[in-house]
Write a structure and sequence with these properties.
Blueprint: H1 6-15, H2 21-43, E1 52-56, E2 62-64, H3 65-79, E3 84-89, E4 96-97, E5 107-115, E6 126-134, H4 144-147, E7 156-162, E8 166-171, E9 177-182, E10 187-192, E11 203-205, H5 216-226, E12 238-239, H6 245-255, E13 258-261, E14 274-275, H7 276-289, E15 293-295, E16 312-313, E17 315-318, H8 320-331
The structure holds 2,5-anhydro-1,6-di-O-phosphono-D-mannitol and magnesium ion.
Length: 333
């Protein structure tokens, strides 16, 4: 069987006019950084990379050593290639400017270097999420404002899942494509063309310990699922919660499902738990490209006009008919 690598896939996308040479280089560099992160994640305790870094990030959360390592790997890998105007990271408060001695390009890269940090020390899957925007023409040196573009303007989005195998999932706006890392060869192999999310599902993902904090529409929706065959849905539903968004979304991309981190009383002041620019937008683009839907419960995520880099939002995404049902419940008085 002919093995297509990520490199070859990207060259073919460029030839087909779907991506520019610079965007191809950018994605290649992100994938290279992901391989380096994967090596660190898989060494775990052997390399002394587990545990706390002893610092807090911009969100006031304790950083793990691997959060810091993954962030450094992504920043350094992407600084010098000449394809970027600037970067923004979930772990860094301000925009990361390209050092003055390197050439600059037309793209903005945003990432959550290591998503699912609470799973690092227990050897459960974690991931990296990224999003690519164009630097608005004529805007000069990028500022926070340059990044504040609605998600539908993303030119690419993807994630890496560091699980039993390392996978790289990518969309450039023409379907969702999955690659698996061949560790011996050191290359990503195209294993999952045009991934798609079934419109119907019997599986949901939510941190149910927050039930007492949820708003009425989410509580109603989940209670109906829990009633199973005896309830209004007239069938049983299964529940999964990895607490690594990448792993939970990847399961949905593979076999369907609905993922929710809704607005609740605990996170109301911040606007939600998950970050719009580093988590919600890239995942929403991937999920929509796979035929699913992504909403805050009230609005399409990709239509939100961001007002700050580290903004948080409620997230409901996955199988189309379930997401639409949750949205419908939010509309009812
Ligand atoms: P992180 O980026 O600091 O790791 O936080 C985001 C993670 C998501 O991956 C996951 O869906 C969620 O937080 C889990 O939250 P909780 O621990 O409240 O279940
Ligand atoms: Mg995260």
């Amino acid at each position: 069987m002919r093995r297509v690598t990520l490199t070859q896939f990207l060259i073919e996308q460029q030839r087909a006019g779907r991506i520019s040479a610079d965007l191809r280089l950018l994605i290649e560099v992100v994938a290279r950084a992901v391989k380096a992160i994967s090596v660190n994640v898989s060494k775990g305790a052997l390399a002394g990379v587990l545990g706390e870094a002893g610092t807090d990030n911009v969100q006031g959360e304790a950083q793990k050593k691997l959060d810091v390592i993954a962030n450094e790997i992504l920043l350094q890998a992407n600084e010098w290639g000449g394809h970027l105007a600037a970067m923004a990271s979930e772990e860094v408060e301000e925009v990361h400017h390209i050092p003055f001695d390197y050439p600059k390009g037309g793209y903005l890269l945003l990432f959550d270097p290591l998503d699912g940090s609470s799973n690092i020390d227990v050897n459960i899957s974690v991931g990296t999420i990224f999003s690519v925007l164009r630097n608005p023409p004529g805007s000069g040196e990028p500022s926070e404002q340059s990044f504040l573009q609605p998600g539908h303007q993303q030119v690419a989005a993807g994630y890496a899942l560091y699980g039993p195998s390392t996978q790289f999932i990518l969309t450039v706006g023409k379907g969702v494509h999955g690659f698996t890392l061949d560790r011996e060869m050191g290359s990503f192999v195209y294993t999952h063309p045009y991934m798609s999310i079934p419109a119907d599902t019997s599986e949901y993902a939510i941190n149910a310990s927050n039930i007492r904090h949820w708003e009425a529409p989410v509580r109603r929706y989940v209670e109906e699922l829990q009633q199973g065959k005896e309830g209004p849905r007239e069938r049983d539903f299964n529940m999964r919660w990895v607490a690594s968004m990448v792993a939970d979304v990847h399961r949905i991309l593979t076999r369907g499902g609905v993922f929710m981190y809704p607005l609740d009383e605990k996170c109301r002041k911040q606007g939600g738990k998950l970050r719009l620019m580093y988590e919600a937008n890239p995942m929403a683009m991937i999920v929509e490209q796979a035929g699913g839907a992504a909403s805050t419960g009230r609005e399409r995520i990709l239509d939100l006009q961001p007002h700050k880099l580290h903004q948080r939002v409620p997230v409901v995404l996955g199988s189309l008919n379930e997401v639409e049902r949750v949205v419908a419940y939010h509309r009812e008085p």
